[in-house]
């Protein structure tokens, strides 16, 4: 039986969501899928790098993605899905095929990137699209489960200069994350800092930077997920 949230989102979807079609699906290794969406309703849309787009899943609710790009003249946008866990959002991303009709809500403001100066982005596998939308090599630090799988996705996106830090149990890699973020900030004085991804990792990096008295221009943070929790974004 659909949840109350899903029922409310279903009503909103019928009123405010845009119709779109999945026109292309590309598997990138075992952990990622690139999805291209298109349709007349996606034309003449105002999009800022870092904006979020919600995909309406009937009977389930919605799942949020950060578009890699948006072509408002042709009505086409591109998403990168990280295939982790076995929740309904992941199952949809794993099984959706070209030709599928969907509804989307947005784009809407979230973590704005791509400005001047470009941000230093911290995150994880769920942050790849945000980092790519930022568009500048050498300013991204990601904690990842499989550096090889993530690097394959980065190569497919033609995005280089990303520092990958392998996850360890009990967050034993936290100091390595803080080291990498400090190095990125020092290499780009005046760059704002954008923190995304796992809630505990964001907190750990913030605490580490504070303990080291690291100065930076500004900070924006948004947790995309935490173990056992949904709907953080």
UniProtKB/TrEMBL annotation:
<dbReference type="InterPro" id="IPR039374">
    <property type="entry name" value="SIP_fam"/>
</dbReference>
<feature type="domain" description="FAD-binding FR-type">
    <location>
        <begin position="15"/>
        <end position="114"/>
    </location>
</feature>
<dbReference type="InterPro" id="IPR013113">
    <property type="entry name" value="SIP_FAD-bd"/>
</dbReference>
<dbReference type="InterPro" id="IPR039261">
    <property type="entry name" value="FNR_nucleotide-bd"/>
</dbReference>
<dbReference type="Pfam" id="PF04954">
    <property type="entry name" value="SIP"/>
</dbReference>
<protein>
    <submittedName>
        <fullName>Iron utilization protein</fullName>
    </submittedName>
</protein>
<dbReference type="InterPro" id="IPR017938">
    <property type="entry name" value="Riboflavin_synthase-like_b-brl"/>
</dbReference>
<dbReference type="GO" id="GO:0016491">
    <property type="term" value="F:oxidoreductase activity"/>
</dbReference>
<dbReference type="InterPro" id="IPR017927">
    <property type="entry name" value="FAD-bd_FR_type"/>
</dbReference>
<comment type="similarity">
    <text>Belongs to the SIP oxidoreductase family.</text>
</comment>
<dbReference type="Pfam" id="PF08021">
    <property type="entry name" value="FAD_binding_9"/>
</dbReference>
<dbReference type="InterPro" id="IPR007037">
    <property type="entry name" value="SIP_rossman_dom"/>
</dbReference>
């Amino acid at each position: 039986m659909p949840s109350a949230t899903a029922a409310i989102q279903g009503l909103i979807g019928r009123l405010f969501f845009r119709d779109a079609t999945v026109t292309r699906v590309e598997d990138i290794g075992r952990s990622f899928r690139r999805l291209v969406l298109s349709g007349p309703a996606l034309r003449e849309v105002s999009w800022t790098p870092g904006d979020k787009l919600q995909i309406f899943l009937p009977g389930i609710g919605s799942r949020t993605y950060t578009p890699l790009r948006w072509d408002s003249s042709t009505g086409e946008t591109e998403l990168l899905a990280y295939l982790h866990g076995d929740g309904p959002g992941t199952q949809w991303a794993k099984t959706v095929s070209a030709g599928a009709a969907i509804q989307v809500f947005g784009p809407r403001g979230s973590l704005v990137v791509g400005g001047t100066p470009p941000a230093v982005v911290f995150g994880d596998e769920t942050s790849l699209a945000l980092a790519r939308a930022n568009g500048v090599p050498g300013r991204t630090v990601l904690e990842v489960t499989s550096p090889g799988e993530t690097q394959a996705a980065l190569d497919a996106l033609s995005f280089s200069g990303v520092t990958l830090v392998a996850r360890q149990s009990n967050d034993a890699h936290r100091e390595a994350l803080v080291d990498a973020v400090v190095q990125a900030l020092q290499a780009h004085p005046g760059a704002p800092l954008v923190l995304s991804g796992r809630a505990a990792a964001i907190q750990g990096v913030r605490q580490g930077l504070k303990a080291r008295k690291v100065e930076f221009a500004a900070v924006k943070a948004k947790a995309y997920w935490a173990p056992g929790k949904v709907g953080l974004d």
